[in-house]
């Protein structure tokens, strides 16, 4: 009798494992982002157009600005610390949060607009930012991953050459606030390289 009960219990346990296994394997694996950095390189033509129209981009702390070249042409590079987030590895998705910002100033009229605390949303394919002095978060860039190179490791991820295209919302806000017409929806502003660490 005891053997019969044990055999039945074992069979039930095996059946439960078999039924549960597909659900467990189908669930995406989530990792928590602990640090890292993301760099944004402005396309040289865009940097030149901004400056020639009196629009000065300023990287705000703790972001770090630097000069670089793309195709032997000088341009601006901004690097921001990663502060957190979470990612799913299969399929690739989730968010990467940052601190620091980017302030645009129209030197002709003194008007400015700063967007800060960027979040890369891989699930939605966009980068959002909070408008300084408000609680409003707006989509700043659409992420084009068709040109990107993505590598996953045990302790981090590396996504390089992600194309950044200005959203309609960001272009409208910048043009309205700065009283300019230099920004347009879909403008390829540059590329991003992000290196979150788990």
- The backbone outline, from C-alpha atoms, is globular
- Tell me the fraction of residues in β-strands, as a range: over 45%
Largest sheet properties? 8 strands, antiparallel, barrel
Radius of gyration: 23 Å
Low-confidence stretches: 1-25
How far is the N terminus from the C terminus? 52 Å
Number of helices: 3
On the 0-100 scale, what is the average pLDDT?
A: 88
**Strand arrangement in the largest pleated sheet:** 2-5-6-8-9-10-12-13
Task: Provide a descriptive summary of the structure in words.
This protein has 198 residues and is α+β, with helices and mostly antiparallel strands. The chain is 23% helix and 52% strand. Strand 5 and strand 6 (92-98) form a beta hairpin. The chain starts with a helix and ends with a strand. The model is unreliable at 1-25 (pLDDT under 50).
